[in-house]
Amino acid sequence: MIDAARTLVIVLAATLASGGTLLTIGLLGPGTVDGTGADFGLDTNGNGRFDWLVVDASVDLPESGVWDVSGSLFGNGTPVSGPCATGFARPAAESFSAWPITSVYERYFFTAGPQTVRLAFTGTDIERAGLDGPYGVQAIFSLGGYVAYVDSGILPPDREAPYVQWNYTTRSYDASEFEEPVRPVAFTGSHEDAGIHVDGDGLYDLLGLSAGVRVTTPGTYGLSGVLSSRADPNETHWAMPVAYAYRDVRLEAADTSVTIHFRGDQIRMSGVDGPWDFSLTLYPSYPYPYDGRNGTVPGTTMHPIAIYPEVLCGTTGPYSAGDFDDSAELVRYTGAFEEAPADWDADGRYEALVVRAEVESFVNGGFDFDGTLRSADGTRDIARFAAQGYLPIGVSWTEWAFPGGSIAASGIDGPYEAVLSLTPSPVGIDPTTTYVTRSYRAADFEGDATGRPSHWISALNATGTGGALRVYADVQRGDDMLTYVIEDVLTLVVYADARNEVFKASDRVYLPSGGSSQSFAYSVDGLSPGTYTVVATLGNPDAPLDVWSVTVSL
Fold first, then answer.
1. Which DSSP letter does residue 319 get?
2. Among residues 275, 291, 323, which one ends one of the domains?
3. Does residue 250 sit in the same domain as residue 219?
4. pLDDT tens digits for 207-239?
5. In terms of domains, do 86 and 68 share one?
6. Does residue 508 fall inside a structural domain?
7. What would the DSSP string read from start to end of 417-483?
8. CB of 58 within 8 A of CB of 114?
9. pLDDT tens for residues 262-287?
10. Are residues 54 and 196 in the same domain?
11. Distances from the Cα of 408 to the Cαs of 19, 223, 445, 552, in angstroms?
12. What's the maximum distance between 2 C-alpha atoms anywhere in the chain?
């Protein structure tokens, strides 16, 4: 026999990762009941800290059916970690307000009458928020397929399908009593900002914002930022967006800092003077699917843990929007150059004259490359180069390959003047520079070669010990500025003679960016003494991109 007062354990927790809305837990509507229930902290791993805050809600449901249950836990004040208050104004008519810390949701069949529903709130969410209890709890029970989420700030309207709103206040807790989440990186709270001049026109091209971080797990992280106007002191309107930015950043295990740049043209167009409120969000760029273990223990390859985005809220110094440039320069040349003629087919004549320019980019983004190779006196255009590429924030090298056929056809010997221009692909102005090359003979260039391949086999080595063969191969991608991933197949075959194939393997080649490489290793055991030929083929064996071979004796 099943007791009429059934207990439901709800353990599915939804983490508030970004954004946030100031909500009320004091507005009572039809079907609302004063909270009757109980609460306790639950330590599931025996380390003395609560993994869950369990709340038992005593409700009297008017009908039998499948009920949707949405519950939220609230704390007084703004969480020290998690959603920023920036950009969210308080509702005008409100007697009691609080911030959501964590939420739960479930569906279950209940019979009509008294029920005890158990809501289990994630302890790591509470510790991360840094708000001590007592906590406010609000749960909405809705019937008929209508889901009323507490965190939406919208209570169910009057309708035929019944619902019950249950409000409750827990006993006192310290946030430090709850389990601390695994944090590969965390903001330390320090930050500073400054306007950045890229050119000499007296206006800021960017606003740089730096924040201190403590890194325990090295890796690549995504960093995003939002600037907004400060909230109205009367809290009667929403804050206005001013600028936004994003970048990837590689961090080693140390106490260090991260920097992001907001575009000056966005700030100027907003027309909003500082100080501005900001929100920085830092998170791993690799996936961490939630595995139900509450984010309290290190994960594994098969079962990684849920990682919280780290958020820093703050305010910049005072600025005038008019102090920023409406045509901001987002990249500059450092003044360092390199050059080299390229003989890709090794026939003694050059297929291209490659000029490399070092640049400093202040934003992640795509850029249009446009280059002209001229005679030394600048009176004749000899060759053109045009491409699109992606530049990360920081210092990097750009490459401009002027075709040898055009140089040969011109009949003009060097030195040459290279005019290089970079333009942000979406919008922006193009910083231009010139560079004078060394002397060359036009006759030393040619235009009939097929050109350098996008990727190739760069090494193939084989060693024999006893009856075993060890083979090592490397595939290299060219130092291009293109943003797509190159995928191919490397096939390795070992022959005991011209026709006797004793080993064959095919592997996927994955080259995500310019200059990247991939290494392969193979073991062939159980071989008899003799001479073996190892052949590595890149691409379709019927039309290979590159083929290498090596002979080894056992």
1. -
2. 323
3. yes
4. 999 999 999 888 888 899 999 887 555 554 567
5. yes
6. yes
7. EEEEEEEESSS----EEEEE-----GGGB-S-S----SEEEEEEEEEEETTEEEEEEEEEE------
8. yes
9. 988 889 888 899 899 898 988 876 54
10. no
11. 60, 47, 5, 43
12. 99
